Amino acid sequence: MGRKERKGAWRRWGAAIALALAAILGLSAASVWWLWLRPLPMAAATMEVEVPRGASVLEAGRALARQGVGVEPHALYLLARLQPGSAIVAGYYRLERGLTAPQLLDLLRRGERIRESVTFVEGWTFAQMRTALERHPWVEKTLTGADERALLAAIGASEARAEGLFFPDTYVFDRKTPDRELYRLAYRKMKEELETAWQARDPDLPLSSPYEALILASLVEKETGRAEDRGKVASVFVNRLRRGMPLQTDPTVIYGLGEGFDGNLTRRHLGEDHPWNTYTRGGLPPTPICLPGRGSLWAAVRPEKTEYLYFVARGDGSSEFSRTLEEHNRAVARWQKGRKSP
Q: 188: number of CA atoms within 13 Å, CB side?
């Protein structure tokens, strides 16, 4: 073979190799695009999917594929190996059409899950709080049917009665969070709030423990229609405790009547003796009667300095306060004829 022929042969081989390399690179680029850069096929424009607890990247990929996300599990696993980072986070995610595999992996690593919430309202009873949890569609029910002692033991609480022990607030959580975790969170929050308030209490407060402050706060919560009245309402109860006067507050009577109360409080009810009847018994009732909020906790430990011994609701959420029974009787005649109030 002459020099010219050899050169021609090398050129042909070179062209063939170049074409082969181009084909390989083209296939590789197509593979990379197909595996990682293309938008993932999805069954709907927006999807809610679950990554199971404890799932690896490969297992998460398989779970998502079963739910209608067109991700190749091994490709997602390889991508995670090529791009080291934090572990993926289990939970429910909302995916939008157009998402690529790298974006999906980043989303799972950041843990941008769908979050749910539940609100415990100030003034609710424990029974109302429990109903809210048991009716929430995304709370995992583990304590349904448990009595109060068993429920409290499950969250590490030593108290015998649950009323008032949980802080009213809005709690944000992952879907399928066990109810015991939400109970525990609200319980610890109330512990913290109560301890903070108790440490800042007035030195001459006629209360012997944080639990008594919690009881008083629950009365303030139920008797206050406007935030600006909390300190005065608390002062009435504190002044009465100092003088040994019965607190005579209707909400305690209603609480003690329980499910038997039909909404109409009568003089007969006020005379029926039970542990929560503050007309027939002196001092504080044995337990809180609701979930008091932060404002009522602080009003209970730092009440306004007044000489008030009575108050009556005006009907607009506010109350009129009196120093003497004569003043109070006139206020009752003006605002709530025939209805007894502290």
A: 9
Distance CA 34, CA 24 (A): 15
In the numeric block, the tokens 């790298």 are attached to: 102
End-to-end CA distance of the chain: 120
In this predicted model, what pLDDT tens digit does every residue of 316-341 receive, in sequence order?
Answer: 889 999 999 999 999 888 887 645 45
Residue 35's pLDDT is 56
Helices 179-199 and 210-223: crossing angle in degrees, nearest 10, is: 100
* Residue 125 to residues 165, 185, 251, 274, Cα–Cα distance (Å): 10, 17, 12, 18
Q: SS3 of 30, please? A: helix
Contact 299, 234 (CB under 8 A): yes
Query: Residue 176: how many CB atoms within 10 A of its CB?
Result: 14
Amino acid 158 reads S
Which residues are bridge partners to 49 per DSSP? 93
